[in-house]
Each structure stands twice: as structure tokens, then as C-alpha cells.
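pinging the channel bc i need a second pair of eyes. not urgent but kinda urgent?? the chain im working w is below, pasted from the shared doc
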Amino acid sequence: MPSKKKPRIFLKVAINGTKSNKWHKLGVTQNPFPQLGRAEWDERKINSLDGDPVKDADDIRQRLTGMSAEFIELCCRMFKPGRRVAFVVYWDPNT
């Protein structure tokens, strides 16, 4: 019997490199809407990148402690001080 393929996984990531938190006007500190994802991804850690401003790459590494090194370094490369950036990360767990 052939093994069932797992669906491709994707995560929407936003990193707030500005000096303000856009979520404060709604009375929250970060995006309150969780992503549909696998349990091993801590959505609160990912959402924290779009909450209070990210200072630098070390701040990203600290917020994402425990996640894969490859994912953390991708977030560090995508970070742009003074800007809010958003991107989608996806991978195929079957490969």
C-alpha cells in the first residue's frame, strides 16, 4: 500500500522593522489570528515578529528560539530595518 503524501506546508511571516506596533490600535500586541499550521510550529513566536518592533537579527533569533536554524536565518535575511516585510515560507515534507 503506497504511503499517503503529506500536504505542502506554508507559513505567512511578517517582520515589523518599524518603530511602532500596528496592532496596538486594536488593543492587542500582535496578530491575534493564528495560522492553520502544524503543531510543531509555535504560531505565537512567528506572530511576535509582526508585533512589537524587531530591533535586529539577534532579536529575531531570541524570539524564535527552538525553531529550525534554517527558518530563523531566513527570517534574519528577510528583515529590513525601518520597514515591515511579509513573505511566505513553504516546503514539501515529502522530499
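so The first helix runs from residue 43 to 48. and The first strand starts at residue 9 and ends at 16. — does that match what u expected or am i reading it wrong
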